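Record format v2
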Amino acid sequence: MKINVIGLGYIGLPTALMLAAHGVSVVGSEKDAARVAALQAGEAPFHEQGLDDVFQKARQNGIAFTTDVVVADVYIISVATPYDAVTKKVDVTALQAAARQVLAVAPDEAILVVESTIAPGTMEASVRPLVVAAGKHVHLAHAPERILPGNMIHELEWNNRTIGADDVAIGERVKALYASFCRGEIVVTDLRTAEMTKVVENTFRAVNIAFANELMHLCHESGLDVYDIIRICNMHPRVNILEPGPGVGGHCIPVDPWFLVGDYPTLTPLIRTALETNAAMPRYVLRRIHEIARQEHLPASARVGLYGLTYKEDVDDMRESPTLQLLALPEARDFVVYDPMIHEDVVAHQVHDLDAFLDAVDFVVIMVKHAEIRERQEKLRGKVVLDGHHSVALPGVYHL
Ligand code: SAJ
């Protein structure tokens, strides 16, 4: 049995490598020729714990990389499915382009699995018509990914999964494929249920984070310590509040819930408010920076430094990062920026060394709680610090 994984990004690549490392015959396809050349040379485009080992095993087992879609028994599409900023609906352009490529070469009875996150109903509305138009007898399945960046390889192996499919027999075949590397429980269901569960999972997290952010605002107003409040509440056996923070980034939590809002605008006031609460955080951070600068009587010439550019700690992924959202505000134009995970220059006033960063600034805003700053927090002594994540334990540090 031959598998063709299409889209070798954060999800497609680890999935292709895991399958190959576990003895499945895999071809990885990616339209970016430079990425394909790097993969052929054994270079991973991003860092993840355990990825190098799996890459090596996959290479030993003969994984191939190409820019073409090839003849295979099962296709796994894992391309980006962003939301349209205006309509808030899922943008299926890349997904449909990949599906068309598959359908041009797929043999009858092949299975087309979509891993990309999609709005409920997308398989029927946007993929099925392509199969019908191609006149092929290709089966459809949806196997939404659930892995957490920063812990991907472990979670690929241990997370439970959901497989939605045209019928149970197809679902079971896809399940057997994923069971080659996944030791979690794999639930087989229908396409729409699988689509919905994935979006609901990320929406639950977005709403919970928004709740934490709202609590933060009201604790700040009333002079209470939100972290202490959440810590104590979470000791209740049925309460689990997430953490407030300077914004919600990544390609999933601030994106996927919009699919529900886009398709059901009148039925999702809570979700919309949660997304807006989270999206307002970078601007709130800016307000706190101004407030604290006044309180500390910092001169207008004082330099503000943002610690962290990635969307969360200890990953090198900057998609939808709260720091980038903050830097997009004109008042943040002159801020100095440093991130130990980002080695190339991506924004203005970026430095590449913690000491140089601390020398250059008077006021440090911790936007990302990378292990580096938690381990080296003593270096922050003497600076004005706004800790966006309750990540350091130094006296006099400000919080959100
Ligand atoms: N964040 C907070 N407070 C928290 C937790 C996170 O402000 O308590 C922020 C982070 O700093 C970050 C953003 O939220 O900016 C998202 O980070 P995350 O760790 O919550 O989530 P992702 O995007 O890395 O991964 C999520 C996961 N989904 C769930 O946990 C339900 C992962 O399992 C999914 O596979 C992934 O989305 C995805 O690809 O859909």
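The mean pLDDT is 97.
The pocket of SAJ is lined by residues 117, 145-149, 201-202, 205, 209, 242-243, 245, 248-250, 252-253, 311-312 (CB under 6 Å).
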